[in-house]
Write a structure and sequence with these properties.
This protein has helices at 3-6, 8-18, 20-45, 57-89. It has 90 residues and is an all-alpha fold. It has a domain at 25-79. Helix 2 (8-18) crosses helix 3 and helix 3 packs antiparallel against helix 4. It is elongated.
Length: 90
């Protein structure tokens, strides 16, 4: 089953509210948020030997990569919104 089939309802809902490109990006943000939560939970159990109280280094790297991807997607969504607002105002 593809992601388009698995998340059909979410995609349709977000496409209706935001349009197809921004809707797909919004669902992507949701997927990344879910992954970030799971990695965070895993980090509770996989503690760093060098830095007590912090997740293992690989967990920290994965968390940062997911957070960075979310920030990039949010930036694209903002830019798409700005450009569509400018186009409507013309």
């Amino acid at each position: 089953m593809t992601v388009y089939e698995e998340r059909r309802e979410e995609l349709e809902r977000h496409e209706l509210m935001m349009g197809k490109p921004r809707g797909h990006l919004a669902v992507s943000l949701d997927v990344l948020t879910d992954a970030l939560v799971l990695v965070g939970q895993h980090g509770v159990y996989c503690q760093s030997a060098r830095q007590p109280g912090k997740p293992a280094m690989d967990i920290q790297i994965i968390s940062k990569a997911i957070a960075d991807a979310k920030e990039l997607i949010a930036g694209v969504m903002s830019e798409l919104k700005r450009s569509s607002t400018q186009t409507e105002g013309d």
